[in-house]
Design a protein that fits this description.
Number of helices: 8
Shape: globular
Strand order of the largest sheet: 1-2-4-3
Structural class: alpha+beta
Helix content: 40-55%
Radius of gyration: 19 Å
Distance between the termini: 63 Å
Largest sheet: 4 strands, mixed
Length: about 190
């Protein structure tokens, strides 16, 4: 057998084996969703919709998957987002959320951080909403701080303590964590 073909064939066989034994995460919402005032009376959802409306963004639509384990989330989030709370795949309009306890409203990231589940969901839904309004290309070309800041602002929550974040900003002693970075993005948008 040709040695140059051996590596690609091996990779294909491994991928086929992985997909054949791999089970999908549980589906929180298994059909395209449209969050609307008519189908929800939850105060949190209504507040989210109010912010979306204030910023002239369309209601998001897409699929949301709540991964049961870190390995499931790692499989869908790719290596680059392995420590995130969630990831949105813009081409498929699919959101994958790290293992969560919906009853306690907590999502846990692989690196150990915690965040309110609904704020993670709203952050990711806002990505879908921005893509829907501006188009994928324009959204991808917009600076990361601006897109993530808008999503954090509309989600109205942060995994970084607000008082601590403001103290660090005031003293010009930034934290190297992603949660602090996203906190500063949110503050910039809020300002």
């Amino acid at each position: 057998m040709n040695k140059t073909l051996l590596i690609p064939i091996t990779i294909l066989l491994l991928l086929a084996a992985a997909f054949s034994i791999y089970r999908l995460p549980n589906i929180v919402l298994d059909s395209p969703i449209t969050v609307s005032k008519e189908n929800n009376s939850d105060t949190d959802v209504l507040n989210y919709l109010k912010k979306i409306e204030q910023h002239k963004l369309p209601n998001p639509t897409g699929e949301v998957f709540n991964c049961k384990t870190d390995n499931e989330f790692l499989f869908f989030s790719m290596i680059t987002h392995r420590n995130s709370f969630a990831i949105t795949k813009p081409f498929t309009k699919t959101i994958y959320i790290a293992p969560s306890n919906i009853n306690t409203n907590i999502t846990r990231a692989r690196q150990g951080g915690e965040r309110v589940y609904t704020s993670v969901l709203y952050h990711e839904l806002t990505h879908l909403s921005l893509n829907k309004k501006y188009g994928l290309l324009k959204t991808l070309l917009t600076p990361k701080w601006k897109i993530e800041g808008i999503c954090e602002f509309i989600a109205n929550d942060s995994s970084f303590d607000i008082e601590e974040g403001m103290r660090l900003i005031k003293n010009n002693t930034p934290d190297s964590s992603y949660s602090f970075k996203y906190f500063t993005y949110r503050i910039a948008i809020d300002y």
